[in-house]
Amino acid sequence: MKRSIVITGGAGFIGSHVVRLFVNKYPDYHIINLDKLTYAGNLANLKDVELRPNYSFVRMDICDFDAFHALMQREHVDGIIHLAAESHVDRSIKDPFTFARTNVMGTLSLLQAAKLYWESLPERYEGKMFYHISTDEVYGALTMNCPEGVQPPFTTTASSTQHHMAYGTEFFTEATKYNPHSPYSASKASSDHFVRAFHDTYGMPTVVTNCSNNYGPYQFPEKLIPLFINNIRHRRPLPVYGRGENVRDWLYVEDHARAIDLIFHRGTPAETYNIGGFNEWKNIDIIHMVVRVVDRLLGRSEGADLDLISYVTDRLGHDARYAIDSSKLQRELGWEPSLQFEEGIERTVRWYLDNEEWLNNITSGEYEKYYESMYAGR
Ligand code: NAD
Ligand code: TYD
Asked: Residues 77, 6: contact at Cβ < 8 Å?
């Protein structure tokens, strides 16, 4: 095999799309999916590639330094694409320790094991890459100073796919200072600093990308879009935090996976790239769109389920607005989002409705307890 690449968190939402893309596109790479299979990890996400000769799965905790170091030696790993993390803000508010352990200590453990192995080789860091996947949430929150939405001020090559709205005049760029607010984003920010420190201190080739909210197939139904699709399906209440005015920039998950492929192969070591959809939406507008699409596809009268919307107590420290300027990635590597949001939402809703069994397997058993504890008292 030409390369041996570990993808951590490959059984999760984004990781499974990255694994699928790499296994299909690079038959001469050995793709090792390393995942602990927490509640969010699901091997059913990878049924279509699990028997491929260039794919293997290893169940491992990223905090297990010795096991990971041994794996690197055994498989001659020359690339790491690190997605494994605790990823849900609401869970981080209830249990910040788990986030510090996995996101901070787990990342540090991978870095240290990679350093030990790569520095033991004659060629050291030549041809190696540690690629860390992070989030736009590390930058903090932007203000909403044009609540009705305006044309974004920067120019982009992605004009055909760009949403017309921006809800403020500021955007996160790669130079924006870190200012995380939630335990989740604080843990991701900390792990980003460790990754950069390994480059600056030891010369490890690293790259960090900060991406906006992803949506699409295989997302665990605790996150806004799949949770609401599932709830509409069952005619359950749709818990909108606060007034539903918070703004997020949304990117179809396969576009993120494509960006990761491009940056892993052509990104400059030590660089940071922002990845985003130029696609800002208020939560309440997305919810209206999702309700209408689900209703239509289920043969219900369109909009009939809007009365499931239920305004609940706001999330603690709820960030008002995220908006990514990903023009550096467009300019330097020619990436741009491929889908209009409306089309992406239609595809996503169709996928969840067509994959009832996937959804039902997840939302039975333990999930019910999670759901009840999360929304009890809201
Ligand atoms: P996810 O929660 O769907 O998947 C996380 C995966 O990591 C799961 O398969 C889980 O089993 C695994 N994992 C968790 N702890 C582990 C551990 N200790 N050892 C090994 N494996 C472990 O997450 P996601 O939404 O796919 O996000 C993937 C990455 O992308 C995360 O680093 C996240 O911070 C980042 N990110 C996510 C988004 C988004 O919108 N979902 C946006 C930007 C960045
Ligand atoms: P989420 O999907 O959890 O992603 P993130 O917090 O990382 O942005 O939430 C997206 C937005 O939707 C966020 O502003 C919180 C809001 N939200 C709700 O209003 N109700 C919900 O039940 C959930 C899960 C999220």
From this structure: yes
Q: 321 near 272, Cβ under 8 Å? A: no
CA nearest neighbour of 187 among 130, 81, 108: 108
Q: How many CB atoms lie within 10 A of CB 174?
A: 17
Q: Is residue 136 among the annotated active site residues?
A: yes
Nearest atom (ligand 1) to Cα of 38 = 11
Residue type, 91: R
Distance CA 121, CA 357 (A): 47
Burial 38-74 (b: 16+ CB within 10 A, else e): bebbbeebbeebeeeebbebeebbbbebebbbebbee
Residue 104: domain span: 3-374
CB-based contacts of 360, cutoff 8 Å, min separation 6? none
Using CA atoms in the order 105, 177, 153, 341, what is the torsion angle rounded to 10 degrees? 10
What is the count of structural domains for the chain? Answer: 1
**DSSP structure class, residue 176:** S
Mean pLDDT, residues 346-364: 95
Residue ranges around ligand 2 (CB below 6 Å): 89, 213, 223-224, 227, 239-241, 246, 248, 283, 315
What lies within 8 Å, CB to CB, of 155 at 6+ separation is 327
Catalytic position from the list 125, 184, 215, 218: 184
Catalytic residue chosen out of the listed positions 35, 78, 136, 295: 136
- What one-character DSSP code corresponds to residue 221? T
* pLDDT tens column, 145-181: 887 888 776 544 444 455 557 899 899 999 999 999 9
Round to whole Å and give the CA distance between 52 and 54: 6
Token couple for 116:
């030990």
How high is the pLDDT of residue 157? Answer: 47
Cβ atoms of 55 and 295 within 8 Å: the answer is: no
pLDDT at residue 20 above 80?
A: yes
Q: Annotated catalytic, 184?
A: yes
For the CA of 135, the closest atom of ligand 2 is 7
What pLDDT was estimated at residue 365?
A: 73
pTM of model > 0.70: yes
Is residue 102 within 8 A of residue 62, CB to CB? The reply is yes
Which CATH number does the domain housing residue 219 bear?
3.40.50.720
